[in-house]
Amino acid sequence: QVQLVESGGRLVQTGGSLRLSCVASGRSFDYYGMAWFRQAPGKEREFVAAITGNGGSTDYANSVKDRFTISRDNAKTTVYLQMNTLKPEDTAVYYCAARRATRLTRIPRYYDYWGQGTQVTVSS
Hints:
By secondary structure, the chain is mostly beta strands. It is 0% helix and 47% strand.
């Protein structure tokens, strides 16, 4: 069992930056691929970014590519999402997810563990 806790979400202005954190409990964190998803009211959960267990490979949704960066610190069992040049359309609840696999995926059902989410609001 893996427990995930997100933090860092808050209200920011358009063009601002924010860093989200996701702290994982449990052993063997370095064997888990990690990802960030987001969900706005009335919309489907949307893939944002993913990273392999060793941090060697990443994947980004086109909507956030060149603005967001996913990273991890396995010694701290933490994954981060650095968000720059924020836009109002980035407003959503952001969820951290974990998957015990080596290949990256954008499909939510392939992730085994989920955090409770953290709210990011970007003012216009």
